[in-house]
Amino acid sequence: MTTTDQRADSAREPNFPTDTFNRDLIAAMPKLRRYALRLCGNPDDADDLLQTTSMLALTHRERFKPGTGSITAWLKTIMKRKRNDELKREKTRSRII
Question: Is residue 36 within 8 Å of residue 50, measured between CB atoms?
């Protein structure tokens, strides 16, 4: 019989080895930085977006499903959604002020 803690631990395990995930994440960085520059238009903002995306990917790596698409596409989706959230927040702030 498994305990609740054992089930929670197994649910957090990545779908493939962490070293493979980290290697693929690092390999995708140049493409992600170029994509971030296109989204932001500013190198400093692009670097911030890249860092946030990387942190989110590492935190939620168990959500990546190998075989359903490339890790780069998954990371670009995270990045685009994060950038859209930032733009919505900026738009809301400008209305308030």
Answer: yes
